[in-house]
Automatic annotation (TrEMBL):
The lineage of its organism: Bacteria, Pseudomonadati, Bacteroidota, Flavobacteriia, Flavobacteriales. Keywords: Membrane, Transmembrane, Transmembrane helix. It holds the Pfam family Zip. It comes from Chryseobacterium formosus. It comes from the Bacteria. The chain crosses the membrane at residues 55-72, 92-113, 119-142, 154-174, 180-199, 211-229. This is ZIP family metal transporter.
């Protein structure tokens, strides 16, 4: 079930990107909404699990996650927060970008090992986060005048869609005691991505009320998930 949800979130995003990719405001709003959701999941779900584990110095791994995301962004050129530029008219993504996106999604999937709850806030955070990235991917690959639906494009989408499920599969082979380390790294990645999207300076540093509204909406959605989710089993896979 979780596998299917992970793949569907990418397919849905790509589909939206194919048909609505010209609407740059739509993709920007989707990103801002997901950033509000993501930072709330990070602070309410991921970090409490990290810091209530019996392992000390996990903050180092959170910082490691932030630094890792900075390195990945050198490959992806900020694709995760909507910074994509049409390089010529070839509809093949640069290899570095693909590698960066795959690693990013793969690492996010590892803490899902042994997760059985389809309403897990961490899982919902990833699904919500997948949508805007896949939207941009779909817009990039399928939404240009002369771009045909080519096998390389489909392969790229398939690779990205399967990256988190692969991570989840591999996570089953790791020692469950390592879970807090992976969660800490992903927490750092989430924190970096969401804060960059939220705090990117507005034009002339004016207050952008629509942006603030979208962040609040994303935060509210995540808080509702947090409040209504049964946390009695949290930590069952530590």
């Amino acid at each position: 079930m979780i596998f299917i949800l992970l793949i569907l979130s990418v397919v849905a995003g790509v589909f939206l990107g194919k048909y609505f990719g010209q609407k740059e405001k739509f993709s920007k709003n989707l990103l801002i909404l997901s950033a509000g959701f993501l930072i709330t999941i990070c602070l309410n779900e991921v970090f409490p699990q990290v810091y209530t584990s019996d392992i000390g110095n996990l903050g180092i791994f959170v910082i490691g996650g932030v630094l890792l995301q900075m390195i990945l962004e050198a490959l992806t050129k900020g694709f995760e927060h909507g910074h994509f530029h049409h390089h010529g008219e070839s509809n093949i993504l640069p290899m570095a970008l693909m590698v960066g996106l795959f690693i990013h999604a793969f690492i996010e999937g590892i803490p899902l090992a042994n997760e059985t709850d389809p309403f897990s806030p961490y899982l919902l955070g990833i699904l919500f986060h997948n949508l805007p990235i896949s939207f941009i991917l779909g817009a990039f690959l399928f939404n240009r005048t002369n771009s045909k639906v080519s096998y390389p494009s489909i392969l790229i989408v398939a690779l990205f869609a399967l990256a988190s499920p692969f991570g989840m599969l591999l996570g089953n082979y790791f020692n469950p005691a390592w879970q807090p380390y992976f969660l800490a790294i992903v927490g750092g990645i989430f924190l970096h991505i969401s804060s960059v999207i939220i705090f990117e300076s507005n034009k002339n540093h004016n207050i952008d009320w629509s942006k603030i509204g979208l962040v609040i909406l994303g935060v509210s959605l995540a808080l509702m998930m947090h409040l209504f989710h049964d946390h009695s089993h949290v930590g069952h896979h530590h």
